[in-house]
Amino acid sequence: MNKLRVLHVIGGGEFGGAEQHILNLLSSLPADEVETAVVCFYDSLFASELRKAGVPVIALDRFGRFDVRLLQALREVFRSFGPHLIHTHGVKANFFSRLASRGSGATLLTTVHSSLRYDYAHPLAYALVSLMERGTRRWNRHYIAISEAIAEILHKDGVPREQISVIYNGTDLSPYRQTHLRASDRASLRAEWGIPADAFLFGTVARFVPVKGLPLLVDAFAQLAREMQEGPIPYLVLVGDGPERAVLEAKVREHGLEERVRFGGFRQDIPACLHACDAFVHSSLYEGLGYTIIEAMASEVPVVASHVGGVKEFVTHKQTGLAVSPGDVAGLTEAMKTILQSPDLRERLVHNALTLVEQTFTIQHMAEQTLALYRRLLS
Question: Is the predicted pLDDT of residue 66 greater than 70, yes or no?
Fold first, then answer.
């Protein structure tokens, strides 16, 4: 049997959930059955990580953001690689790939990782990307939604249900399961962040962008700090970076929380960061799935999470985490207080959540489902 030739296309300027998804997937597909490569519009950290993993990368970073010459460059790549399937990720990759692939004979498949309405808050930006996406859908054969919530958004937006497959993103759980590293991770990171060994540390890992709701988290933590005058002193660490960092730093100063809140910056040692925390807090206003929540669960860190999007499909209130309505600062404060004061609850949530992620969110499961879809689309 000839190998399936699959070419993934993505902007690749960040290293977020979509990029990690591609890296996990392509590192797990059987090399004797599938030949893969990735086209990136930016030659950045993601492209470097792909190369480290032995995945061929074609970087088209010599063009401007919406340079029409990108179309011809993509046509040449498609002609040279000769893919059976072109698998795209993100509005820009979808748009240019759909136009460039016409006449190539390749089948087009798109993975939808998030909701455009929340990715592009400005009305003009949202109108433009919606036009780019909907105007080229006629050339796309099938969609992978990373959650039922994303599938429902696609269906409401006019995509027939038979053209949508739900495949949960798989996570390499092994780095988060290295229990022998936890004590050293915890001690070294707390020392680096200036957090006492016996303090109760809340943490989050996120891009500092509006949809992540991080100002609400800081407000909720400020209220918690005011209420907790006795018992363990709570601290908060925000791991990540992005355009809202200055806003968050100003809010921390406004609440007088400089001694209690730490900015961890962009880091690649996320398992170590999670092991240093006593609880994980997710405050997003929307989430396609919630990679970092799954990683926290795999690290046996109890979770407080906004009950939004795909998160609803695996954070069950008082079973696998504490669920809070999006934007509810008082509810977030109360949930954090409950987690802090209830060691038995923390233990139960951790046990249930770990069982769930080990059954549902493995890379192997994701790779098997994706390969089966590839075969079905080409049969």
Answer: no
> Which one-letter DSSP state was computed for residue 230?
S
Q: Please report the domains of the chain, with CATH numbers, ordered by start residue.
A: 4-170+362-378 (3.40.50.2000), 174-360 (3.40.50.2000)
For residue 367, the surrounding DSSP H or E stretch is helix 363-378
> Could you give the CA distance from residue 102 to residue 141 in angstroms, rounded to a whole number?
12
Region 95-108: mean pLDDT is: 95
Rounded Cα distance, 306 and 9, in Å: 31
**CA separation, residue 153 to residues 23, 113, 132, 278 (Å):** 25, 11, 17, 34
Q: What are residue 85's DSSP bridge partners?
A: 6, 107
DSSP, collapsed to helix, strand or coil, labels residue 218 as helix
- Give the DSSP per-residue string, 13-49: SS-SHHHHHHHHHHTTS-TTTEEEEEEESS-SHHHHH
Mean pLDDT of the chain: 93
pTM given for the model: 0.82
Residues 54-63 pLDDT 10s = 999 999 987 7
**Residues β-bridged to residue 236:** 202, 261
CA distance 304 to 342: 13
Which tokens is 325 given? 């309505």
Q: Element (H or E) spanning 134, and its range?
A: helix 123-134
Q: CB-hemisphere CA count at 13 Å for 272? A: 14
Measured CA angle at 169 (ends 174, 181), to 5 deg: 20
User: What is the average pLDDT across 242-260?
Assistant: 96
Helix (H, G, I), strand (E, B) or coil at 323: strand
Please name the residue that has the structure tokens 């995509």. Answer: 159
Q: Is 248 helix (H, G, I), strand (E, B) or coil?
A: helix
Cβ(3)–Cβ(81) below 8 Å? no
Dihedral, 13, 14, 15, 16 alpha carbons, nearest 10? -130
- Please report which helix (H) or strand (E) contains residue 59, including its range: strand 57-59
pLDDT tens digits for range 162-181: 999 999 989 888 889 876 66
pLDDT grade for 232, boundaries at 50, 70 and 90: confident
